[in-house]
Specification:
Layout: H1 3-33, H2 35-45, H3 53-72, H4 76-93, H5 95-99, H6 112-124
């Protein structure tokens, strides 16, 4: 890899990782701040009704652990992979909003597509994502 790319790529990947983390953190915190909203989201998009506040807190705690692992680059294959899978499921479950983008606030759902691309990119390039991570790359 040329020197410019070797110097810039880790920073670019970190900024990508940080931006994905910020979005996911807002969704995680929503489970603690407004668990009723989390229950409504689960009912509408995942067809899981009756999510209690306690269960929203448990899911929020699990997701918080995952997104922190993702942010610090811990066990990148697992944390990046799970974040990619989680966001992928979230994006696919919103397919009805993509089919009718100009109704209500559906246009905002399109932001999920570049974020999913960022998640896939981070997973694919995880060995080069070495800026401010706890797990250093094992290969060159």
């Amino acid at each position: 890899m040329d020197t410019k790319l070797a110097n810039r790529l880790p920073t670019a990947l970190f900024l990508c990782r940080l931006s994905v983390f910020v979005v996911l953190l807002v969704w995680v915190l929503d489970k603690f701040i407004n668990p009723e909203h989390a229950a409504a989201v689960f009912a509408k998009f995942y067809f899981i009704s009756g999510l209690s506040n306690g269960m929203a807190y448990v899911l929020g705690a699990l997701q918080l652990s995952l997104v922190i692992a993702f942010l610090i680059g811990f066990q990148k294959t697992w944390s990046y992979g799970l974040v990619m899978l989680m966001h992928g499921i979230s994006t696919v479950s919103s397919y009805k909003q993509f089919l009718n983008p100009y109704a209500e606030a559906n246009i905002l759902f399109f932001a999920a597509i570049p974020m999913l691309a960022a998640c896939v990119t981070l997973f694919m390039l995880r060995d080069y994502d070495s800026r401010w991570v706890v797990d250093r790359p094992t290969s060159g």
